[in-house]
Hints:
Distance between the termini: 90 Å
Bound molecules: 2-acetamido-2-deoxy-beta-D-glucopyranose
Strand order of the largest sheet: 7-8-10-9-6-11
Structural class: alpha+beta
Mean pLDDT: 75
CATH architecture of the largest domain: Orthogonal Bundle
CATH superfamily of the largest domain: Transferase(Phosphotransferase) domain 1
Number of domains: 4
Amino acid sequence: MGMPSFNVSMLLLILSLLSFLSLNSEAAPEYRYHFCSNETTFTPNSTYQSNFNRLLSFLTSNSTRESGFYNTTVGQTPETTVYGLFFCRGDLTPDECRVCVSTATKEVVEQYCPVEKVAVIWYSECVLRYSNKSFFSTMFQTPSVSLYNIQNITEPVRFTQLLGTSMNEIETKASNAPTGTQKFATTEANFSELQTLYSLVQCDPLISSSDCKTCLGIAVGNLPGCCAGKQGANVLYPSCFVRYEIYPFYKVQAVPPPAPTPVLLAPPPPKGKSRNSLLIIIAVVAAAVVSILLLCIGYYLLCRKAKKKYNAVPYENESGEITTDSLQYDFATIEAATNNFADDNKLGSGGFGEVYKGTLPNKQEIAVKRLSQTSRQGAEEFKNEVLLVAKLQHRNLVRLLGYCLEGEEKLLVYEFVPNKSLDYFLFDPKKRSLLDWSSRYNIIGGVARGMLYLHEDSRLRIIHRDLKASNILLDANLNPKISDFGMAKIFGVDETQGNTSKIVGTFGYMSPEYAMHGQFSVKSDVYSFGVLILEILSGKKISAFGQSDTAEDLLSYAWKHWSNGSYLDVLDSDMRDSCSRNEVIQCIHIGLLCVQENPADRPSMATIILMLNSGSVTLPSPQKPPFFLHSRTEQNMPTIAMESDKSSSTNMPTVEVNSDKSSSTSVQWSVNEASITELYPR
Ligand SMILES: *[C@@H]1O[C@H](CO)[C@@H](O)[C@H](O)[C@H]1NC(C)=O
Ligand SMILES: *[C@@H]1O[C@H](CO)[C@@H](O)[C@H](O)[C@H]1NC(C)=O
Ligand SMILES: *[C@@H]1O[C@H](CO)[C@@H](O)[C@H](O)[C@H]1NC(C)=O
Ligand SMILES: *[C@@H]1O[C@H](CO)[C@@H](O)[C@H](O)[C@H]1NC(C)=O
Ligand SMILES: *[C@@H]1O[C@H](CO)[C@@H](O)[C@H](O)[C@H]1NC(C)=O
Ligand SMILES: *[C@@H]1O[C@H](CO)[C@@H](O)[C@H](O)[C@H]1NC(C)=O
Ligand SMILES: *[C@@H]1O[C@H](CO)[C@@H](O)[C@H](O)[C@H]1NC(C)=O
C-alpha cells in the first residue's frame, strides 16, 4: 500500500505548510499612519498620565468585545479627563481585534506619541484615537492622509469607473448600518480575468449615518486626486477610511462553493478498474493540492511585495497614469457618434459652445461640447489642461472623458448624464413637483460635496466661476453632477492679461466683488452656491424676480422671511407640508451666510459641509445680503472680464481640511449637544 502512505505523508506536509501560511497571515498588525500634535502634551508622572495609562488599559481589556469597538472616559476633573476609543476592521474576530488594539496602545506610546494628549493611529486592522476633549459621536475630517500602492494599474480609466461603482455600493451599505454598530462594508469586482478589485470602507461606529456617508464621500472623492491609476490606495480620516487593492486584504466573505470538479463527479467506474481509478483520483487530487499550494505561496509572496511598496502622501499627491493620449478621441468617431452634429442631437448651448449627445460604437453615451473657436491656446497646452481637468473625478462632478482636436476644431467629451439640468425641473411649474424635499436636500448636499472637492483638491484648486442651476445635471436617481468646471483652465485664460479673455459668469449668481470688480476666489463660488440653495428652496429663479413688478429679488425675499421667522414661506408652496422644518431652516441659514457681501464672512465649502452634516453646530447669524442687483439695466450685462488669476489667488483663503499635524486639535466648531430645535426656536 505505497500509495495511501504517500498520501498520508503528503497530507501532513500540506497541513504543516498550511499552518505555516496561516501563522504568517496572522502576523503583527500592519501600521499605516498616525498623527499626534506635539502642541498639547502632558507631564510625565502627572495625574493626566496615570489616567491616560488607565484609559489605554481599559481599551485593551475591552478589545475582545463582540461589537469590535469601545469608547471610554477616565478622569475626575475636566483638566485630567482622557477620552479614548478604538474600532477594529469589521471582518476581524474578537481575538484578532485584541491583537491589534494591544499593539496599537503599546506602539503609540513607545514609538509614535509618547507624551501627546491628542492622537490618532491607523493600522490596517484597527483605529485608535484619544484626546483630552470629548470627540465621541462627532465626525472629524482632519487630520487625514492617503497612501497608495506605487504599482500602476493598466487601463486606469476603466479601473476608475469600476472602483467608483464598487465604492458607491459599499458606502451606502456601510453608512446605513445603525449608529453604535460596526459601519463596515466590502465588495469584490472582476477587473479582468486575472485581476479582482477588493474594496473596503468603514466608519467610526459612533457617528451618525449621515456623517458616515459624508466622511466616506469625501474620502472616496479624494481617491482620484491622490491615487488615480494606482493598484491600491488607502485614504484615512479619524472618522472613516476607505481602501482598495487588487489582492484580498480583508477576509473575503464566503462565496458559494465552486462546482465540484468533474473527476469527483464521475459516475462509479466499472468494477475491476476501481483500484486504478482510485489511484488516479488520488494523484490528481494531490497534484491539484500541490499546485494550489504553490499558487497560494506565490500569491502570498506577491502580496507581501505589493504591500511593502506603499507610499504615504500626506497630501500633495502625485498624478496617476492617465495620459493625454489615452484621452484623445478621433474626430471621425465623434462625428459618427453625434450623427455629424445633427440638430436632433443638440442638448443645448452653454457659454463655451454647443453640446451634442452622441453614442460611441461600444454603445457608451456621451455628451460632446464643441468649443466655440475663440481660444488662442496651442494644442499641447490644451491637451495638458484637459488632462488635468480629466483627473478631477468625483461623483458629484460630470466626468470629462477626453477631447478631440481636428484643425481649428476643439471638442470635449463628457459622460452623458440622463436627466437634464436642475433648472429644467426647478423652474417648470409641472416638473417642479418631481423634486420633493428630500431630493432637493440631497441635491444641495451633493453640490456642496462636489464644490468642496473642486476647491480643495490639493493639486488644482478649481474655482468654478459659473455655478448655477443650469450647470447642475441630474442623473437617473436625481443625484447632482456639476458641469462646466475647469473651463477657465481648458480655455487657456491668459493669466497675465486679464482683459483679453472673457469668461462668462451669470448675472445674479455672481458675487458683488466678481460682478463689479472682476475679483474671484473660492468665496465667489460660495456666493453662487448660496444663490443656488435659495433657488432650490423657493423654486424661483434669481433673475425672474427683477423682471416682475414687485422688483424684489430672491435674496431680499429670503432675508425678509428669515428675519420675520416665517421660514417655511421661503419654500416652494407645494412642498411646505412634506419637508423637514429644521433642514429647511438650516438651508436658508446657510444660503444667507453664503450670500453675505463680505467674502471673508462667507463660510468655506468645508464649513458648509460641516454645517449640513451636524445639525448641532452653532452657526453665526447671517448679515443682510447685498442688494446691488436691483437696477434693471444691469441685467443685460451677461459677461464680464476677469482679473488675472495671480492677483486673486493670493487673496484666496486657505482652508485646512486636509492634514497636518496640528490640525487635529484646531477644529473650531463649537459643537454642542443642543438640538437643532433649540437653535431655531419657533
Ligand atoms: C513640534 O514639532 C515640530 C516639528 O518636529 C517642532 O518644530 C516644534 O518645535 C515642536 N513643538 C513643540 C512645542 O515641541
Ligand atoms: C487639552 O490640553 C491643552 C494643552 O495641554 C489645553 O490647552 C486644553 O485646554 C485642553 N482641553 C481641554 C478640553 O481640557
Ligand atoms: C516617573 O516615574 C518613574 C517610575 O515611577 C521614574 O522612573 C521616572 O524617573 C519618573 N519620571 C519623572 C520625570 O519624574
Ligand atoms: C472595560 O472598560 C471599563 C471602563 O470603561 C473598565 O471598568 C473595565 O474594567 C474594562 N474591562 C473589561 C474587561 O470590561
Ligand atoms: C461612548 O460614546 C457614547 C456616544 O457618544 C457616549 O454616550 C458614552 O458616554 C461614551 N462612553 C463613555 C464611557 O464615555
Ligand atoms: C507609474 O506611472 C507613473 C506615471 O506614468 C510613472 O512615473 C511611474 O514610474 C510608474 N510606476 C511604476 C511602478 O511603474
Ligand atoms: C468574477 O469572475 C468569476 C469567474 O470568472 C465569476 O465566477 C464571478 O461570478 C465573477 N464575479 C463577479 C462579481 O462578476
